[in-house]
Amino acid sequence: MTWLALCDHDERRLSLRGLGLDKQDQPVLDDHPATMLTRGSIMFETRLTADRRPQVLFAYKTTSPVLRSLTFQAIPGGGIAMVQVQGDEIRHAAIQNASGGRTDVVRITYSWDSDAQWARMALEKQEETGVTSVYLENPCPLSLLDIRGLMLGQSEQTFASDMIFAALSDQIEPLGPMPTLLPSAPLATPWGYKPAKTLMRGDTVITRDGSVVPVLQSIRRTVPARGSFRPIRLRAPYFGLQQDIIVAPDQRLLIDGPEVEYLFNQEAVLVPARHLVNGFAALKEPCGQLVSYCQLLLPRHETLLAAGTSVESVYIGRIRRKPQELHCSLLNAFDRSLLPEHPRPAHHVLRWYDAIHLARRRAA
Hints:
Blueprint: E1 3-7, E2 12-14, E3 36-37, E4 39-49, E5 55-62, E6 68-75, E7 79-86, E8 89-95, E9 103-113, E10 118-125, E11 131-137, E12 142-143, H1 144-152, E13 156-159, E14 163-169, E15 186-189, E16 192-195, E17 204-206, E18 212-214, E19 217-224, E20 232-234, E21 245-247, E22 252-256, H2 258-264, E23 268-272, E24 282-284, E25 290-297, E26 303-306, E27 309-312, H3 323-328, E28 348-349, H4 352-363
Parallel strand pairs: 23-28
Antiparallel strand pairs: 1-2, 1-14, 3-12, 4-9, 4-14, 5-6, 5-13, 6-7, 7-8, 9-10, 10-11, 15-16, 17-18, 19-25, 20-21, 20-24, 22-23, 26-27
């Protein structure tokens, strides 16, 4: 797969050979306005408020040579609607988001395969494992003219203030469980610390309680280094680290100690890395357009040791019992019969306000 375009409030980039880590020797698309991308994905993250009025979030429109537009709009109740117009053809889909009145950051992935005559729009939330999807038939492909209008703003284009980033890929992008460790992250094994990228199925790792467990699979993905994918540096000696490590914002650390028992009446709690960013113990890592992550799948969702601190391995729940979700995920590449079933996490996951308070106490 190749990421072709990325835009946020600071920059807009499009490369027909791919961005950054995805750069290819030859162009993925011919450099002609009428060239069609018949298969691909548009991914974007935005803030949604349940009670807001309809608002165009991300869109473009042109009338030459015929009316062509693609619009993603926030709708009352916190949902998203998509409308695509190409001449006399109109395609639309809508997806609801049960937010309970909160302001949520959501990730929308619109994927299409016009040759196979299907498309899918999916909504995912930070720190939640569920995916909400809707499907539609006979989607229209995007021309290079459309892509430049949408991603570079070369036509009448909207990129609302609530938008965080948008990216375009030439493939159907996966949904669901994602890797969250930089490939260089050192993980404890019976033979010492090894980079995460070197560990494969059949290798063993040491867990937080000292057990030795087998690696069932190693999963990897390259994503836009923006929004909920923007890497975070966790600095030693905070959190018991022996050296700095870089993780995704969704990577959760298992933190224990007297403060945890006193504040939360729990032996240990899980804290997403995004809530630990404070400018000294954890900070946003400077990066390019893309970043690659990897993570290990373990039999019972055991806790890994990364450079001395406890980090969560990838959690997949009972996805093997959900054929549609499994098919849309990175795990679809593996034998379903060899996938484990993970019980619910044994530890409480802190909300952002509790996590910030704990991080301040631990860093003091």
